[in-house]
Amino acid sequence: MKTAAFKRVLLKISGEALSAGQGFGVDPAHIYGIAAELADVHSLDVQIAVVVGGGNFFRGVAEQAKDMDRVSADHMGMLATVINALALQDALEKQSVHTRVMSALEMNQVAEPFIRRRAIRHLEKGRIVIFAGGTGNPFFSTDTAASLRAMEIKADAILKATKVDGIYDADPLKVKDAKKFDQISYMEVLKRGLKVMDSTAISLCQENNLPIVVFDLNQRGNIRRVVTGEKIGSLVIA
Prior knowledge:
The structure is a single chain. The protein has helices at residues 15-19, 28-42, 70-93, 116-124, 142-152, 186-192, 199-208, 222-227; strands at 8-13, 47-52, 99-103, 112-113, 128-132, 157-162, 167-168, 180-181, 183-185, 212-216, 234-237. By secondary structure, the chain is α/β, with parallel strands linked by helices. The mean pLDDT is 93.
């Protein structure tokens, strides 16, 4: 059996990934598929934290929020991430994996408040921890939240799950001969303005030398492949 290349990882999943192309809401079959993959990786004794986006319900920079106050819109987006976190928690616990949701926004009836030491203790006890509510602050994306939480829990890498199989110099869904990068530096990502994660998130990873692996979530088994060290997707390093 393959052993894990990473001891502790943070997986970033967009809200759109949970909707499985429906554009809105959560697709139960898809979310259970993701939960089954996470349970499989968890069986390798890998400590897993997850940051979920909220774009399948609402995002502060979306078209429907253009006439809203940005702070109010971002708070609505944060609440959307809590809905996704609870859906993923339910799917994981149906796979008999102990899970905790920790929210940057206080809502004690549905999630624990984010406390760094408690989060690390949950991971050490073999629980999957899902971070909801972004950073708890408006104007910061869930990508930035993923970078921040990865740093706080001392993750070995961020696994950025997307709908394409890596980083390209143009959108591969629109540009037929877009070039894929197997490996790229943080500075090159920032210089080229590549939409991997936002610039704040990339800069945070660069300052702390935290690797980012970008891969296709829709290909079943890819989370395990990344964690066991297979060369798939694109790697962002110094």
